[in-house]
Amino acid sequence: MRWRSEFTVGGSRAWSLAIRTLPWLLVAPLFLVPFGAAVLGGPFGSAGGSEALFSAASLERFLAILGSPSILASLRFSLLQALVSTSLSLALGLPGAWLLARYRFRGRRLYAALSGIPFVFPPVLFTLGFVRAWGRNGLVNTGLMSLFGLPKAPLDFAYSFSGVVIAHALLNFPLVVALVGAVWSRVPRTPEDAARCLGADEGRIFATITLPSILPGIAAAASLVFLYCFMSFAIPLTLGGGPGYATLEVSIYAAVSGEQNFAKAGTIALLEGCCAIGVLALYSLLQARSVAASTDAPGERLPLSSQRRCLRRAAALWLVSSGALALSPLLGLLVSSFTRVGRWGGAATLSIEPYVKTFTDRGSLRAMADSLMLALAVAALGVGIAVLLLIGEGRTGKTGIRGIFFALPVALSSVMLSLGYLVLFPLGAGVGALALVQATAAYPLAWRTLSAARSRIPSGLDEAAILLGASRPRILATLDLPLLRSALLSSLALCAAISLGEINAALMLNPTNFPLLGLRAYRLMGSYQYPLACALGVIVCLWAGLAFAAADRLSEEPG
Amino acid sequence: MSRPYLAIEAIQKDYPDFSLDMSLSCEKGEIVEILGPSGGGKTTFLRIIAGLIAPDQGHILLEGRDITGLPPRQRGVGLVFQDFALFPHYDVAGNVAYGLKARHPRPDPQEIATQVEALLRRFSLAGFGGRRIEGLSGGERQRVALARAMAVSPGLMLFDEPLGSLDATLRKELRGELRVLQRELGYTSLSVTHDQEDALAVADRVVVMRNGRMVQTGTPEDIYARPKTAFVASFFGDSNLIPAHELQATAGAEGLFFIRAEQLRLIGPGDGPSDGGTVLELVVNDFEYRGRDYFVKGRPKPAGRPAQLDRAPICFRMAQRPGLGDVVQVELPQAALLPIVDDRN
Fold first, then answer.
1. Looking at the structure, do residues B142 and B195 belong to the same domain, yes or no?
2. Which of B195, B228, B261 is the last residue of a domain?
3. Contacts with A198 from chain B: Cβ below 8 Å
4. Which of B180, B199, B228 is the last residue of a domain?
5. Which of A190, A204, A213 sits opposite B102 (nearest CB)?
6. How far apart are the CA of A401 and the nearest CA of chain B, in angstroms?
7. B336 and B302 belong to one structural domain
8. Given an 8 Å threshold on Cβ–Cβ distance, is A198 in contact with B77?
9. Is B345 part of any domain?
10. Residue numbers of the domain that contains B186
11. B73 and chain A: CB distance < 8 Å anywhere?
């Protein structure tokens, strides 16, 4: 009866009951209803309105769709590319994680900050930048051609299986750096010293002492990256380009937009949802194990500059080149946005023409205004939901069934949820549904940010407040929220950034009379108007960056 | 002249806010306790000897061999860590076998199992081989840590606060165990501790360390009875540090004098002072019951005037329970007063 004692001290039973049930009543339907509608309204839905929901006929139809070659091919591709992408992300991320955990060096914080890229750089714009950096006419190829006088582009992998997995790896490896780096730096050091004194060489120490203790952390990071890649949408949609290279997520969209086949889309959603929930559960389990094995404080970091010269050089080389890899799509986006394609296929020249065009085009200006409005609404909604969950969960953190349940939107993609809204509102779901889908997709990150920040508040504070006579709401208003100010601001920025460049739900729901930046950039890219698309992309990234800078700035001011 | 078993010659290590500068030598089989307050560089010193930290300057010679530049695994030095640093993902046998396996490129599992079995028996851990570390008590953990470190039979054992994380009862018990073990196995032991009771109880020789420097070294008896500086004096037991001008016997002298609480003699109503000693009149200010007698603090009170609050209290021992505010007379025997270097602050 832990919760009773915790909640009856500062408030009435009714208050505590409301606080416990509100998330279940308000938040759970946000993803359960659309997902249920997507699944039940599709394969199990009554096609003509006369069948019962779970009839033999509907089950047969469901199994028939599930067994169809196109879905199996899509499942196989999803799993295979996710596996390869994850391995590649680990290979690119682990050396950086080690350096980050064990050494001090200039630019350390900058390198760690790269892990923000997958959260603030919308995948569609990332893809755009990736193509502009690594595509046939991209920065790298152009550079290599002019440097070595090559007649044609030496690198031609962007639109292929390799392109998909490399883009995934570039997007996700900084996440591996941050997640594994954090675990690695919190592994207790003395066992390594003990092994050293017992005569183990460095290789053996790593294999027998260090590796076993960071393995759960590596596995947790790998499963998260696997999940992101498995459910990836914009990257395979753009770079895969065909039915052969479609993830399940892309197949849902194809089934809806191409064939108008909601039964097929719903079946895929169920299949993908089940797989994703499985991976999410695995991640939660591994994460809990990894946290249990770590100490509270990170160990001492040695200055890299005092290390052996070969290590120093290798580390510098690795940090610079992997950092450049991570930033290459951003660079591609930026450079491309300042170019003008020459007439009649002439060489591209530097120009601010794309920006001039963007800011004089009524369509683009409307898209900016509408996207900003939507982003603000999504930020307010997403953070509101996160705060609601935070109040409900007490002080104990979010591990356990409840934590996994409310993190489900990580595994139930916005494409699936959009499908549900399309089934629920066949005449058009509109902007409201879009905002709800985006907020549902965004709140788990806001929740995690806030939850992590709150766990850093010393636990004695609210007990002291209770003993001084403060009620629960008063504690929330006078202690928790002020102390969480910076986390609140950055979660607002995070949710807004996620909304700004999002195209998954936008493509699915495609609200009429509501042009959006992400969609516009995607369509411009589709018609090969790269500079214009990139200019829009840079504007979105700039706004997202400004939002974070502002959040950072505001939270630092004494309040 | 025979060379020492372990010779540490002018080891220096500089940190931004701290520097270490130590020389020390030990005979084979000696138990040396390095004592000092936390943050005094004791652990750093041990880690330098073990090879976990490289010194900026100086040499470490073990049996005449210069081991300064060697990696830890080639030194033949065992280290028992403060928190024992047992490997949580190995069982007890796995921990003990670790060093044996690490030292042989192709270890024979049968031979290692036999050796581990023997070690576990020696450290009263028979039957514990399959146990997980989490389930062990503090004493059991310490024995596993010892067995692990001694499995590779180092001649020199280093202990970093070996009793530091244990409660008072257990630490007395394990202190005894460590002493017995050392006598049986005959290794040379170098421990660091911040507990003067541990140091005095176990050591053949005590080294007092402060701010990275050695302040004094000697037998426990020597250090206790004849501290060279005020810091050493106040680190061991209850001591009085009295400026020379407050003592009749040393009138005219400069500096600071030292006398232990138990050396002050209480003057009863019938007794007179013996000649030569200083007699002080004290007002009892505070006291603690220590079992055998009372440990009393009193403020000096010149005749006919109130107690002087600005002067440090004098501590002494009484057989009977004093009353607060009682005025007592104590004598500071001339022979017990020891001039001492004032290195406070």
1. yes
2. B228
3. 73, 98-99, 102-103, 148-149, 151-152
4. B228
5. A204
6. 26
7. yes
8. no
9. no
10. 6-228
11. yes
- Reading chain B (345 residues) residue by residue, the pLDDT tens digits are 578 899 999 999 998 888 999 999 999 999 999 998 888 889 999 999 998 889 999 999 999 899 998 888 888 889 998 888 889 889 999 999 998 888 877 888 899 999 999 999 988 899 999 999 988 988 888 889 989 998 887 889 999 988 876 778 888 888 888 888 888 888 999 999 988 888 888 899 999 999 999 999 999 999 998 999 999 988 887 888 888 877 766 556 678 888 888 888 888 777 766 666 788 888 898 999 989 899 999 888 776 677 666 677 889 999 889 989 888 888 888 888 888 888 876
Number of domains in chain B: 2
Q: Is residue B283 part of a domain?
A: yes
* One-letter amino acid of B249: A
Binary contact (A195, B87; C-beta < 8 A): yes
Question: Hey, are the CB atoms on B99 and A191 less than 8 Å from each other?
Answer: no
Asked casually if ipTM beats, i.e. exceeds, 0.85, the reply is no
Looking up tokens 């004598």, which residue turns up?
A: B331
Kindly list the residues from chain B whose CB atom is less than 8 angstroms away from the CB atom of residue A193: 47, 50, 52, 72, 79, 81, 85
Per the DSSP assignment, residues forming a β-bridge with B55 are none
Q: How far apart are the first and last CA of chain B?
A: 39
Kindly state whether residues B178 and B131 are assigned to the same domain. yes
The answer on B251 and B202 residing in a single domain is no
Chain B interface includes A252 (CB < 8 A): no
Q: For residue B1, tell me if it sits in a domain.
A: no
Q: Which residues of B touch A212 (CB under 8 A)?
A: 89
Contact B98 A212 (CB under 8 A): no
CATH of the domain at B260: 2.40.50.140
Domains along the sequence of chain A with CATH: 1-41+351-559 (1.10.3720.10), 62-335 (1.10.3720.10)
User: 3-state secondary structure string, A452-482?
Assistant: HHHHCCCCHHHHHHHHCCCCHHHHHHHHHHH
Residues of A in contact with B52 (CB under 8 A): 193, 196-197
**Cβ-based contacts of A200 with chain B (< 8 Å):** 73, 98-99, 102
B276 in a domain, yes or no? yes
